[in-house]
Amino acid sequence: MDASEGLAIVNRMVETVALSDDADPGSSTTLKETSPTDMLRLKQQMSNQCFEMEVQLNAGKNKRSCSASEAERDLPDFMSELEEAKVVHFNSTLALHRMQMWHALEENMNQSDPEEESLKFVSDRCMFLCSRIKKLQDEASKLQEEITETQKNRLEIKRQTHEKMKEMEGLMSKMEHPDSEKYKAALEKGQANLEKYKKMAIMTQNVLQSILTACKVNWLDDPKLQEIAMTLEEFSIPD
Amino acid sequence: AIESALRPSDQSVSCRSGNRSMRVAENERRKKAEEPFVLALKYFSDVQTGTPVTGNDEFEKNLVLVERVAYSNGLSPEAISIMLEFAMSLRMGSSPCVRVLKCLLPSSVVPQEAVVRGVVWLNVGKMPITTQVLFLKWVLTVFDMIDAKDQLRAVYGFIFSFITEENLCPFVCHLLYLLTRKESVRAFRVRKLMDLQSKLGRQPFLLHLLSLYKVFSPELVALSVPSRVKSGFKNHNSPWKVALAAVQRRNGAQIASAISLALPVGDRTSSRKRKHGHLQIPVLTSVTNKQPHTEQNSRKKLIPLVQIQSFDQLLKTMHQIELPAQMGSLLGSGLALQYLDCVQEESALLRLNFWLGCALQEEFLFGSDDDAAHIPEETLQFLDKLLSAQHFLQEGFSSSDAFLYKFLNVWDGSLMRPQILGLLSNIPVIPALRKLLFEPLTQLFFTSSLFFKCGLMECLNSMLVKWLTWHSVYALEDDLDISLGSHTSVNMTLSGFKDSVMELVHFVGRLASVGLQLEGCHTLLLSFVLDFYGTVCDTFLKFGLPLVVMPPAGVFYPAFFAADPISLDRLAHIMHRYRVNLTSAKNQEKATEAFHISRQTFQEFNHYLVFMVNCLWNSRMFKPGMDVRLSEELLQKSNVPQYWTRFDLIHHPALMSYAFDFHQKCWPGRKEMDLNSIKVPEPWSWYLQYLFNQGFDGLKDFFQSNINQHSSSGSAEAC
Questions:
Q1: Is B161–A239 a contact, with Cβ atoms under 8 angstroms apart?
Q2: Listed ranges B423-432, B460-469, B496-505, B696-705; the one with the highest mean pLDDT
Q3: Which InterPro entries match (chain B) (predicted)?
Q4: Contact criterion met (CB below 8 Å) for B673 and A109
């Protein structure tokens, strides 16, 4: 039952009420007495039917939204089915056409007329061109193979170069002074000191740069100051 | 009489003197023309502090003169020094600064001392902020024309101090990006940048600088920087761009052509009217201008890359080489690329990719529409050089890949086609291929001309070969992680790689099927498609990748029904190679359990094989169960007798001419051609010989490996 049916039922009910009204014009009191209960009953029926209609409508809505997402999921499958069908159709048509065409050509070759002459000429030319093309293609594919081989070799060399560079770096970082064990402690202490003084030097450089910046002087005009200021980025001992 | 006698000699004397006076007059005139300019410069270098500007006619006259020279031919280095000094020292206040800065168009180089002085004056003087911004923009615009950079690096700290000024920050970051070396990365500078970031947010200019710092000293920068920061630095060259281009064009013959404006990126909101900039690879220079002299006290003498002339020299001094200030210049020299590849210095690669990305974006993605059809010669040369650099290194650059993904969405398919397709073929395997690459390519493919379709097939074939070559060299036996490029950090497992290859092959199969339908099985397109499958059929034996993918029905059948023998022969060759690969794979599987070819692949292969043999050898075409379905009554309607023989070795469209030729040679006397008479055993074997001698090695191999010769009707040996 859907909306229109429900409406029809309501219309009929209203009609029956109207008819019942008309049917008993005289017995107005009895009508008046029965009409509230009838009205209530009617109201109850109508609300039931509205409820049912609502349920139907909602069910319809849900069904629709469900099918939309399902359709999206199925879309790629349908598309590939469609494409497959197209392919089959195309191939079949192609086979049919080619078969018919070449059958007609075969028939034509048997009739000796000027058309046959030109057909023969064209067909001979095609064969000649095909053998030339084949030769060239063979050459090309040989060269292409050589190219691919060369590229593979170059790539292999590149990989080996990188490996060797890594090895070299590893070796260089591991290179130790022959008497390192003996002087290890001293070396460590020396390095710690170096780090400390390096930090101090860098900080001093930064402080001096900041002072010069804050003073807002043109230190380029004083040769001595310039000499100092231009060295404030340098640190001759590498990290 | 005396007058007439005198006149000739007079004339000669006066002629000579006239000539001499003309030359002298010319020289004087030229000197007079230069004189005012020289005088003007003298004025600006000598003017006293505090001279008023308003109402100063002499100042106005001289400035107009300087501007005229600047806009016509550009200013000489000395002129730039003088004018810059005048402006930045604020001797006449800050009002003339803007005008002077705007006319500072160099004709050749910019002396770095002038720039250093400018930077120092920037700190000293009380310039309005907008003028300070203009000065920084100017430095960035002419950066590549500054003759050396060592002094600028010496004042790195002073430049850094400007970073706290919010309006100057983006441009200061850009300048620092161009000047940073490993020694410049100090902990307190990193701290300052991080503080700024917490105040200003994750601005792209801060991120760029921090990522460069991170490359030099990863232990100091704890922040995780995204590998690809989307936008670049802010636009800085708009006040000078047009005028500078005009000056350079005018001076084009005189200055070295490589000293040009390599324009970094602009933002999208800039003016609609843009000219194509000069897209050129900068020339390789060294950082310092001084002649190299031996310094006793320096422990490590660095040799600038530009001085290396031969490969031997490169090898000897490998660890002492100093990279140039402009990384883009590395693209122009094979030796430089070799060095870059060996040493793999991340900071150099980062800056090279940044420069390349900016140049490509600026030129092609923000270009004007009016002359979109006409690409200047230099641009094509630039792209060709980029291609040859990639070819030399045998891999692409991440910035060019990123540019291509964006460009494909706006490309029309015909502009710079060979170059773009060449760059495309260098794209490495990445996980997000479908969305970035396949979707735009699909759109382009189906709306383009036949030649584009063929070109794209070739490009994808080349891409596949490159992936497979890379895999065959870099994938070790028990190592499942394959790094896909020495510059990329993406690692893939073997199965991931196989999936990507399969995705590519399926994609091409689909393109080919529909392309062939659209173009009516055009022979040229078919040839390129068969080239691609020529690569695919040998992935296992030639490249060591355990993968076999059969061609789809949309490729196999059009190739089989082809009207030219070349395609048919190629198809036979490909099927032969598939058989060899599959049998080898099966044997290996039994021996080592290495990998597993799915049953479906075997089924597909057998299906095609049986079809081919049945049609060609057994004359059994159009039987039920085949993929080519035509109903009995349709075949009857076609009026073709014995339609099941129509695609065998005698009647096949591609081979019929040969059958005719053979028939004539075999029975020269016969008037009527009866091709079925070749079917008799004796002429049949001659015919086969004749056919295979035409150069059809593919057919020969195919039949030799698939037909059991001893039985009279060939039976295909299925896999």
A1: no
A2: B460-469
A3: CENP-I (IPR012485)
A4: yes
Nearest C-alpha neighbor of B331 from the set B397, B380, B266: B397
Residue A115 touches partner B, C-beta closer than 8 Å:
no
- Give the integer Cα–Cα distance in Å for B516 and A159: 40
For B117-126, B133-142, B594-603, which range has the lowest pLDDT when averaged over its residues? B594-603
The C-alpha of A224 sits at a distance from chain B's nearest C-alpha, in angstroms, of 16
Chain A interface includes B509 (CB < 8 A): no
pLDDT at site B153: 87
- Average of per-residue pLDDT across B359-366: 77
Residue of B nearest to A236 (CA): B298
Select the residue from B179, B300, B561, B663 to test the A interface by mutation, using most A Cβ atoms within 10 A.
Answer: B561
- Nearest Cα of chain A lies from the Cα of B471 at a distance, in angstroms, of 10
Provide the CA B12 distance to its chain's centre, in angstroms.
68
Q: Which residues of A touch B186 (CB under 8 A)?
A: 202, 206
- What pLDDT digit, counting tens, does each position of B161-176 carry? 898 888 889 899 989 9
Query: What is the secondary structure of A67-135 as a DSSP string?
Result: HHHHHHHHHHHHHHHHHHHHHHHHHHHHHHHHHHHHHHHHHHHHS-SHHHHHHHHHHHHHHHHHHHHHH
> With contact defined as beta carbons under 8 Å apart, do B524 and B379 qualify?
no
Which residues have C-beta within 8 Å of that of residue B471, sequence separation ≥ 6? B482, B497, B543, B544, B545
With an 8 Å Cβ cutoff, is B158 touching chain A? yes
- Decide if B611 touches A, using CB distance below 8 A: no
* Contacts with B394 from chain A: Cβ below 8 Å: 151, 154-155, 158
Q: Smallest CA–CA separation between B326 and chain A, in Å?
A: 20
Q: Which of B238 and B116 is assigned the larger pLDDT?
A: B116
Please list every residue in chain B whose beta carbon sits closer than 8 Å to the beta carbon of residue A131. Answer: 694-695
Is B295 within 8 Å of chain A by CB?
A: no
Task: Flag whether A141 is in a domain.
Answer: no
Structural domain for A36, as ranges: 1-56
Contact A151 B153 (CB under 8 A): no
Residue A164 near chain B (CB below 8 Å): no
A129 or B124: which carries more pLDDT confidence? A129
Instruction: Provide, rounded to the nearest whole percent, the portion of chain A with pLDDT above 90.
Output: 16
Mark yes or no for CB contact A83/B117 under 8 Å.
no
Partners of B322 in beta bridges? B304
- Is A142 a domain residue? no
**Joined tokens for residue B568:** 């048919």
- A206–B188: do the CB atoms touch at under 8 Å? yes
pTM over 0.90: no
pLDDT at B573: 94
pLDDT (tens digit per residue) in B3-26? 444 444 445 555 555 567 777 777
- Asked if A211 reaches chain B (Cβ–Cβ under 8 Å), the answer is no
Summarised one tens digit per residue, pLDDT across range B34-54 is 677 888 888 888 887 877 778
B483 or B323, higher pLDDT: B323
A162–B344 CB contact, under 8 Å: yes
Query: Tens digits of per-residue pLDDT, A196-225?
Result: 998 898 889 889 888 888 888 888 888 888
pLDDT of residue A159: 87
Alpha-carbon distances, residue B226 vs A132, B132, B212, B223, B466 (angstroms)? 56, 31, 12, 10, 28
Query: How many domains, chain A?
Result: 1
Bridge-based pairing of strands B491-492 and B482-483 is antiparallel
Closest CA to B348 of B375, B324, B376, B369: B324
Asked if the structure places residue A126 within a domain, the reply is: no
Check whether B201 has a pLDDT greater than 80. Answer: yes
- Is some CB atom of chain A closer than 8 A to the CB atom of B629? yes
Count other C-beta atoms under 10 Å from residue B254's C-beta: 9
Q: Is residue A5 assigned to a domain?
A: yes
